[in-house]
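Tokens as discussed.
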């Protein structure tokens, strides 16, 4: 039997109420006590329950509805308007009973027990509501007293603050489509496992979660973290999870908006859908479709397809889900291998009154192209899609179709699709031994290769090369070099092997061509057919007929140098001589760098001398950057004094060759690296005179001016302070103080010479940087107090040795102009 509530009805007598209580009630009614119109506590308001006969037993304890902000504001206003209650000194004693069995009544201990039995609230929740009411009443009284004592302004400010707090506390969550989720809280759990539910509640209550209505990647990750931890506890009583919480969890875990990576999205949806099914929470139509797809992706393919079939009457007939339902069926059936059912589903969709989406045929094209027996049907599905799309078919659609046929080794169909894209279906090449002239040329094939390489389909591009050569079309070296470079840049070991195989195949073609050119009988050239070598799996290896160029060797040389394969690089240069291809400065630089990385600095310098003086290879800025980097002060962690002395002579010789060589900067990157490397190399080798001469020479021939950051790095003695350790930060602070001191010294010298020391021109600022650099070098040399007249003779000697006497000392304008390494275009780009 449900508990019987006592109803405060003065017109009805009950045998269960004692006489003293009735007398008290009559006296209270006679005196018309004001508390009858306004209860003084939450318990007295609960007394006003409907009659026992009209009440239904509660099915389960329910969480009470939290008052909205408007209701809370109205309650606060009523409290402010009502006067203080007048008490008559008496208290009404009310007894509460409950009927536990027919004819058996039990008197309740107090009003708290009556409240628990009457409304089914947890003691914790009821206590929280009572506390909230008391706080509201106390707050209203406090504001009323403040207004009576003259604090109207302060009371009004507090009232606005309380209203704002209530709005922030009870506004709930808002989703991407402005949907409101209300108060997100799971109650009804206790015991040691309640901690996981409490953590989930804390997460749901955060203001930072789904801020602005859009979930972030962090929200998705943390949502799954807390929910997965609480699942075991929640499964003990799924009914305690409100529907708003389920909807919010679904919205977050199924989100795949821009900038949010959710790689485990389908797994999370699958688990969440199972939990909602266990909790008896019905899924919306869109949620059912997503749950079926998640089931399929998680490996339950047959079960997902069966669920999809059963939903044909509901989801497959509703206008809102019709298109999504049949498209999902097409994708699942294609992946499952049931192309017949997929075709029927696509026909249902395309023949319906809904706007047809012909791109739903793409999964069918892919599934049919994967089987040799249905390739022709795949092509028919492609033609149907192209007909339905008409002019709305985009280049991306063609790219996807081409990728499908290339992946399935149907290169001829892929070429036909590319021809359709280029000629709007006016040319047919299928089944023809010889391609039409408009298609069968390396320019047309080159366009295709360029597009395939551009979209990253490198394997497809290689298949096109093989197919074109079988059709008598030899791809140009530029196209194949582009494919080799893309393979090498990918960083994959498999792609590097493919790149090396194709490059060496091109090199063999070049060597064969050189041998044939050296023969006296030219007729044999036309009957030459290189033998095909066998692969490990028995398939004939592709023998490329495109001959290698210097770029092919350069790509391999750079890759071998990066991988420190010094032996392979030496082998490559031996083959380069046999191929009768002139060595370029790029190849020379790679070989010099390889020798330097291999610890053979002397061999690197000797190679440079041989290639530049005997083979007359023209060096460039990268050559001298490589040479300066080969010095021991830039290679060894532990400095060797003997090697440092050799570095001093080598650095001066490299600088002399650099000034005399005819080259110009080709990029801003080398313009920033070369002067910096030269200064650091000479300073670390303790060639202080050479450092000053190099700085003065580079000012004229490089238009180089040391920035303040470089001066600080030179002062610290470290080439890079990117790693922010405590030691590096201390060195950085010390270097900055040193540069600031030298700048102050330079300003004081200017002031002594009559300069105001402020409002300096651009030229004066540049001169200041150079002067600070020279003062820094002298400071490191321990000659900061040496007079300038004593330093100049030493600098002149170093200038002659470095080949810049006419530039630094004589100031020969013609010589400066002739040795300048910065052309007008490069100078304009730097400005």
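Sequence:
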């Amino acid at each position: 039997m449900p508990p019987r509530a006592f109803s405060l009805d003065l017109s009805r007598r009950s045998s269960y109420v004692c006489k003293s209580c009735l007398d008290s009630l009559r006296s209270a009614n006679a005196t018309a006590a004001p508390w009858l119109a306004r209860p003084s506590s939450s318990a007295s308001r609960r007394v006003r329950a409907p009659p026992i006969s009209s009440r239904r037993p509660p099915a389960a304890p329910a969480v009470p509805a939290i008052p909205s902000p408007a209701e809370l504001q109205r309650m606060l206003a009523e409290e402010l308007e009502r006067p203080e209650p007048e008490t008559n000194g008496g208290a009404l004693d009310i007894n509460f009973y409950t009927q536990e069995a027919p004819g058996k009544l039990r008197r309740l201990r107090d009003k708290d027990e009556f409240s628990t039995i009457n409304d089914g609230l947890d003691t914790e929740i009821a206590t929280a509501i009572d506390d909230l009411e008391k706080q509201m009443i106390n707050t209203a009284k406090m504001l009323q007293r403040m207004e009576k004592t003259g604090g109207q302004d302060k009371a009004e400010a507090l009232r606005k603050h309380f209203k704002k707090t209530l709005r922030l506390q009870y506004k709930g969550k808002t989703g991407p489509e402005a949907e409101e989720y209300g108060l997100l809280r799971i109650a009804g759990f206790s015991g040691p496992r309640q901690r996981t539910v409490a953590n989930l509640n804390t997460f749901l209550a955060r203001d930072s979660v789904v801020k602005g209505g859009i979930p972030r990647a962090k929200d998705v990750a943390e949502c799954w973290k807390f929910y997965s931890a609480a699942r075991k506890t929640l499964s003990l009583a799924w009914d305690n999870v409100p529907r708003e919480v389920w909807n919010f969890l679904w919205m977050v875990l199924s989100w795949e908006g821009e900038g949010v990576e959710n790689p485990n999205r389908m797994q999370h949806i699958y688990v969440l859908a199972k939990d909602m099914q266990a909790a008896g929470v019905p899924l919306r139509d869109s949620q059912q479709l997503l749950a079926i797809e998640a089931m399929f992706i998680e490996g339950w393919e047959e079960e997902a397809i069966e669920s999809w079939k059963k939903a044909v009457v509901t989801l497959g007939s509703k206008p809102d889900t019709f298109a999504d339902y049949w498209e999902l069926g097409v994708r699942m059936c294609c992946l499952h291998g049931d192309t017949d059912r997929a075709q029927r589903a696509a026909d249902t969709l395309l023949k319906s009154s809904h706007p047809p989406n012909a791109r739903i045929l793409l999964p069918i094209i892919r599934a049919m192209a994967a089987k040799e027996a249905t390739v022709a049907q795949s092509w028919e599905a492609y033609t149907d899609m192209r007909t339905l799309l008409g002019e709305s078919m985009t280049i991306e659609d063609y790219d996807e179709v081409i990728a499908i046929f290339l992946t399935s080794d149907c290169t001829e169909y892929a070429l036909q699709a590319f021809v359709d894209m280029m000629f709007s279906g006016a040319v047919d090449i299928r089944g023809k031994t010889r391609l039409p002239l408009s298609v069968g040329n390396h320019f047309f094939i080159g366009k295709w290769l360029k597009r395939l390489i551009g979209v990253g389909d490198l394997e497809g591009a290689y298949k096109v090369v093989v197919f074109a050569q079988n059709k008598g079309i030899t791809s140009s070296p530029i196209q194949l070099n582009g494919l080799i470079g893309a393979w090498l840049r990918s960083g994959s070991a498999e792609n590097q092997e493919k790149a090396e195989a194709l490059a060496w195949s091109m090199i063999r073609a070049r060597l064969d061509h050189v041998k044939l050119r050296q023969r006296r009988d030219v007729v044999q050239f036309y009957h030459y057919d290189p033998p095909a070598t066998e692969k490990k799996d028995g398939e004939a290896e592709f023998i490329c007929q495109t001959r290698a160029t210097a770029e092919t060797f350069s790509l391999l040389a750079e890759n071998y140098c990066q991988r420190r394969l010094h032996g392979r690089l030496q082998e490559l240069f031996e083959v380069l001589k046999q191929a009768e291809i002139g060595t370029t400065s790029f190849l020379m630089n790679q070989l010099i760098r390889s020798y330097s990385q291999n610890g053979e600095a002397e061999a690197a310098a000797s190679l440079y001398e041989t290639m530049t003086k005997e083979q007359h290879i023209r060096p460039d800025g990268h050559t001298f950057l490589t040479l300066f980097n080969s010095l021991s002060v830039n290679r060894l962690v532990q400095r060797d004094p003997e090697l440092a002395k050799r570095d001093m002579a080598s650095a001066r010789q490299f600088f002399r060759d650099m000034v005399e060589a005819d080259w110009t900067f080709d990029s801003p990157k080398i313009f920033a690296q070369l002067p910096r490397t030269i200064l650091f190399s000479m300073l670390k080798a303790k060639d202080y005179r050479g450092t000053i001469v190099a700085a003065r020479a580079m000012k004229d021939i490089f238009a180089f001016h040391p920035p303040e950051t470089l001066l600080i790095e030179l002062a610290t003695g470290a080439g890079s302070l990117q790693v922010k350790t405590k030691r590096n930060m201390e060195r950085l602070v010390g270097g900055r103080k040193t540069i600031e001191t030298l700048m102050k010294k330079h300003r004081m010298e200017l002031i002594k010479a009559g300069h105001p020391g402020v409002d300096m021109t651009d030229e004066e600022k540049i001169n200041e940087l150079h002067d600070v650099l020279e003062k820094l070098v002298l400071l490191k040399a321990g000659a900061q107090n040496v007079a300038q007249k004593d330093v100049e003779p030493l600098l002149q000697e170093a200038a002659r040795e470095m080949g810049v006497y006419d530039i630094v000392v004589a100031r020969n304008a013609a010589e400066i102009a002739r040795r300048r390494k910065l052309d007008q275009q490069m100078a304009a780009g730097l400005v």
